[in-house]
Design goal:
Elements: E1 6-9, H1 10-20, E2 25-28, H2 35-41, E3 48-51, H3 55-69, E4 73-77, H4 81-84, H5 87-96, E5 100-106, H6 122-125, E6 132-136, H7 142-154, E7 160-166, H8 167-171, E8 173-176, H9 193-200, E9 205-209, H10 211-215, H11 219-229, E10 233-235, E11 250-253, H12 260-268, E12 271-275, H13 281-284, H14 289-292, E13 296-300, E14 314-317, H15 320-329, H16 340-347, H17 365-376, E15 382-385, H18 389-397, E16 406-407, H19 418-429, E17 433-438, H20 439-442, H21 449-454, E18 459-465, H22 470-479, H23 494-501, E19 504-508, H24 514-523, E20 528-533
Helix pairs in contact: 1-2, 1-7, 3-5, 3-19, 11-15, 17-18, 17-24
Length: about 550
């Protein structure tokens, strides 16, 4: 059968290719170089463009969209500062392994390397925090390059790809075939016999689930495996939601900001089956070298992660879902094992600190989070966080029983991530999304309030307002002999500010008013800020 072709401009080809790749939402900010793309966006209705107020926020929103949908998020920006403003967003997605295609405009091909207005080498600038970067100088290369970018972003260890397109490409014409594109699944060659044999001789196995379990769509497979063996399970912060927290086998979150019980269970185990997690310093700092060495089975899709930090007894390079599916098929070899006593021991470990070290009469973050959890029970809403003390309170006190419901910046620790990520998640969910923010981090991308209002997005921002950069202040208290510098901050009146943007706002100063405010925000249409006056000097 002969395929019909059309002669189209590069701007049209870009949008048609994105449409064929299943893209229906783009987050962006226009500029002179990409005007032709924006002109074509105005002529179609297959792809909806969301106008953000900063390019960094556009990339964070695209990542929030990706985290909820499992699809590749797309951001579109112009040249020069429009391109350089994407770097933090791209780095965040790279370190947390989420697929993005970020399209940047570039000066015309004939002006490259001549210091033209707003010319920057964004491919070189982002080389260390992208899976790959492409510069398209010829319209004939555009369609295939965009397809290749999506394939790379979505394959293996997922991550961002930058596609830099020169201005002439948007204007030039070429034939466009427009064939549908389908991603091919890799054939697995993993043998799980070694894992089975290690479990057989263990007395206290424990499973550690990371974000890779969620990304691979393996949460049900994980649940089946854990329940069949009846072993304890712990998670990393990025793994929250990979296993239901209300299940009896769930022990808690590990790491410096995790629960004592979870960390101790790992220490007392004789076999750690780690799936889809990196052993970064916020995990490893809680353990002695021998706590994990010689008893670790490390399963990760990225070969470079195996034994990078902790030497693995058994290393498996494979997608989490594929490995768990294979293990579940072999469960008949393990069902005679009885780990019930070990599970009971893990369940009975002390839960550790649950209240601030210094208690005052003022409202504390954990009280707010406990009440939010009560109000959210049964609603199954997506929750995003900014970065700081509030992030840790949210991870500890909110309960996540399903994947794709907890969105936070893990590897980069990006203040300003949570709010625009909530926008992207809200676009994907088409229902309310909660953003837990600190007063400092909220102001990093506070301008996106108008984005929420413009699109009538029901994002509810709960600001834990203590007048400090709380996490940094806590570090100063512990390591700088209580010398505080640069951490006390002045804040705007969030109520008046919200109203100036056209959003609703509520201020809460007493513990007894928390529930009413949270329920009021949840029942209100549109964007709502709830400003909680928190004890300034609380500690995790």
């Amino acid at each position: 059968m002969q395929t019909l072709t059309k002669t189209l401009t590069g701007a049209k080809i870009l949008l048609k290719t994105l449409e064929n790749l299943g893209v229906n939402s783009i987050f962006g900010y226009p500029g002179g170089i990409v005007l032709n793309v924006y002109d074509e966006l105005s002529k179609q209705n297959s792809i909806k463009h969301y106008l953000m107020r900063h390019e960094q926020a556009a990339v964070h929103a695209a990542e929030g969209y990706s985290r909820v949908t499992g699809k590749c998020g797309v951001a579109l920006v112009t040249s020069g500062p429009g391109a350089t403003n994407i770097v933090t967003g791209v780095a965040n997605a790279y370190l947390d392994n989420y697929p993005l295609v970020v399209i940047t405009g570039q000066v015309s091909s004939e002006l490259l390397h001549k210091d033209a207005f707003q010319e920057v080498d964004i491919i070189d600038i982002t080389k260390s925090c992208t899976k790959k970067g492409y510069q398209v100088r010829n319209v004939e290369d555009l369609e295939q390059t965009v397809k290749d970018a999506f394939k790379i972003a979505m394959s293996g260890r997922k991550g961002p790809v930058v596609v830099d397109i020169t201005k002439n490409v948007f204007l030039e014409e070429t034939e466009f075939v427009g064939e549908k594109f389908e991603f091919e699944n890799d054939v697995s060659k993993t043998n799980v016999v070694e894992i089975i044999d290690a479990i057989k001789i263990s007395k206290k196995p424990i499973l550690l689930a990371g974000g890779g379990v969620i990304q691979s769509g393996a949460t049900q497979d994980l649940f089946n495996f854990v329940k069949s063996l009846n072993i304890p399970v712990v998670v990393s912060m990025m793994g929250l939601g990979s296993y239901p927290e209300d299940d009896e086998n769930y022990i808690g979150m590990i790491g410096i900001f995790g629960q004592y019980a979870a960390n101790q269970a790992v220490r007392e185990s004789d076999l750690v089956i780690a799936i889809g997690t990196r052993f970064n310093d916020r995990i490893t700092c809680c353990f002695k070298k021998d706590d994990l060495t010689k008893k670790l089975i490390h399963i990760d899709i990225d070969e470079k992660e195996i034994s990078k930090i902790i030497p693995a007894k058994i290393g498996v390079v494979e997608d989490a879902k594929i490995v768990l599916e294979k293990l579940n098929k072999q469960l008949g070899l393990l069902l005679t094992l009885d780990f019930s006593q070990w599970l009971k021991e893990a369940q009975n470990l002390e839960s550790g600190n649950k209240v601030p070290l210094k208690r005052t009469e003022k409202m504390h973050s954990f009280e707010v989070l406990e009440k939010i959890q009560e109000c959210l029970a049964g609603k199954n809403l997506v929750i995003t966080t900014e970065v700081g003390q509030h992030q840790v309170w949210a991870a500890r006190y909110l309960k996540f029983n399903a994947p794709h419901k907890f969105i936070t910046s893990g590897g980069l620790g990006t203040m300003g991530f949570g709010f625009p990520a909530a926008i992207g998640a809200c676009v994907a969910e088409n229902k309310p999304v909660i953003c837990i923010a600190g007063d400092g981090s909220f102001q990093m991308n506070i301008q996106e309030l108008v984005t929420c209002v413009d699109y009538n997005l029901p994002v509810k921002i709960f600001v834990l307002n203590n007048g400090y950069l709380g996490m940094v202040r806590q570090f100063q208290e512990k390591t700088c002999d209580e010398r505080y510098y640069g951490t006390e901050i002045s804040n705007p009146d969030f109520i008046k500010l919200a109203e100036s943007y056209g959003a609703k706002a509520i201020r809460v100063e007493k513990t007894e008013d928390i529930e009413k405010a949270v329920n009021g925000a949840l029942s209100s249409n549109g964007t709502v800020i709830v400003d909680f006056a928190i004890e300034p000097k609380e500690l995790l």
